[in-house]
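NDH dehydrogenase subunit 6
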Amino acid sequence: MTYCLELIVVLSLCFVSYSPLVLIILFVYYLMVFVLSLIFILNSYFYSYLTFLLFISGLMVMLMYLCSVVLNEKLAVLKTSSFLFMVGVLVVLGSVGCDTIYDLNFNLMFFDFYNLVKFFFFSYNVFSLFFILYLFFCLVVIYELLKGGKGPLRSNK
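Predicted structure tokens:
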């Protein structure tokens, strides 16, 4: 897990640009790290699968909106940032030992049905509440965007 955190720091330092495409790529990577850590914390794939589907669907709506608003913005990534990214990835991947990969694979293979229904327990109801509130918030935001008679995209002049 510390290797993922190191890679997050490297990615954050490399892509200093605030273009929508770079931010969406970073968000997808952070989402993948969060989903994988959620699998290890809860010992269940259910909430990680729900989280992934929920955030990717919202990300697709944001990507469609941003692509229609920002049509031809050039992606400005410095050559040094791509070099730093390559070096950072090589350092992180070089420090990963084979033993930890085998241990993680061994642990993932032996989940049982008890871990699958763990999300019904009281301590995990916080995640359900989070998903419900997040979906409600997305519904309100999309409603406010579409409330104008002409839709959320460009104004007609």
